[in-house]
Structures are given as C-alpha cells and as structure tokens.
Design brief:
Elements (H helix, E strand, L loop, with lengths): L7 H23 L3 H8 L3 H8 L7 H11 L3 H7 L15 E4 L4 E7 L7 E8 L4 E4 L7 E9 L2 E5 L2 E5 L4 E6 L3 E4 L6 E8 L2
Antiparallel strand pairs: 1-2, 2-3, 3-10, 4-9, 5-8, 5-10, 6-7, 6-9
C-alpha cells in the first residue's frame, strides 16, 4: 500500500519557526548572549540569529553543534518542537527533517520518549552527499548504523568504514564523524541511538 507523499515544503516553515523559538529559549534559559553561544558552538552570531528567527533552516552540522552545546541529541531537540510522541508511531506520523543543501533527509521512526533511552532514525543521503559532524551531541553516545539500501562511507575516530546493504557498524561516539554517500545512487540506513 502506497502512502501519499508528504509535502515537506508546507511543513518546513512551521517546523523552522518552532525550532527557532526553541533554540532561542534554550539560549535564554542559560542566560547567554548570541556572542557567548557563538563562542561555545563555533557558529557565527549572524547564523545563530537567523536560525532563531527562522529566517534560515539550520544545516545538520549546525544543529549537531548546537546539540553538543545544549547536551541533547538531534532527535531530542527536534522532538521538543514536535508534539509528544505516542507509544505507537505510525509511518505517516513520523517527523521528517530535511537538509536540502546537504542532500540529507532524516525520519524520526521512534522519537525520544520519556523513560526510554533509545531512539531509531532513518537517514537518506543523496549520491555525492557528504556530512561531517565535528563532535557528538552527547559524548559517548552509542550508535548502531545499519545500511538498508546502497552504500555508506562512515568515518569514526579517523577510521573509514565502507558499509553495504545489510552491514551494521556499532560504535560509541567521542569525536568527529563523517557520513558520505559516494553514489551514484542514494543510501538509506537505520540509525539506533542510545544515550549513555
């Protein structure tokens, strides 16, 4: 049974607005100026300001840096701008987030939930997509990457792993990581994330 296509553009503006408000609230809770947050995150003040005002949609790398500063996973941050997830998450209700500039689509299959330490994400990278994260959002974060279709080059602790369909890489993340789809086709993978 085919599902109706999800209009990403229609929901993007609403999500960006809620995300911008949440980012502004997190900064205000800590009493930081934009300058202080820029120093802590390595993101320019203008980018931070524009993201908080929902003038731009933050990239995956930008959100990752902010998550590291705020001690959250990306899914936790995104779940804070979505409604409280139910125990049963229907496919049509799984939140999507897209970084168009990087060729990355992220589906929160099993979003964070109170009392649960794990979450499940589906990632899709277009051929040629290359995303680098300079740090984990939470040091020591446990991740399991299972490639469902295509091939993924994943660099962890300066070691590159080539994963084909069916392969799974298990890791604790302490430093930079890089997800790359050499192409020409896309790659689709499942990412299990477990808080330490």
């Amino acid at each position: 049974m085919k599902r109706a296509p999800i209009d990403l553009q229609a929901s993007d503006a609403q999500l960006d607005t809620r995300l911008g408000s949440r980012l502004a609230a997190l900064r205000a809770e800590r009493g930081w100026s934009l300058g202080e947050l820029a120093e802590r995150s390595g993101i320019s003040r203008s980018t931070l300001s524009r993201a908080e005002r929902a003038e731009i949609s933050p990239t995956a790398a930008t959100l990752n840096r902010l998550c590291a500063v705020y001690g959250r996973t990306m899914s936790q941050l995104l779940s804070e701008v979505e409604s409280e997830p139910a125990l049963l998450v229907r496919a049509a209700e799984q939140p999507l987030w897209e970084d168009r500039s990087a060729g990355f689509v992220r589906r929160s299959v099993s979003p964070p939930h109170a009392g649960l330490r794990a979450e499940l994400v589906e990632g899709r990278l277009a051929g040629g997509a290359d995303i680098e994260y300079d740090r984990p959002p939470v040091p020591g974060l446990e991740q399991h990457v299972w490639v469902l279709e295509g091939a993924l080059d994943l660099t962890v602790q300066e070691v590159e792993h080539r994963l084909g369909a069916g392969d799974c890489l298990r890791m604790r993340v302490w430093g930079p990581t890089r997800f790359r789809c050499a192409g020409p086709g896309a790659v689709r993978y499942a990412l299990a994330v477990v808080l330490p």
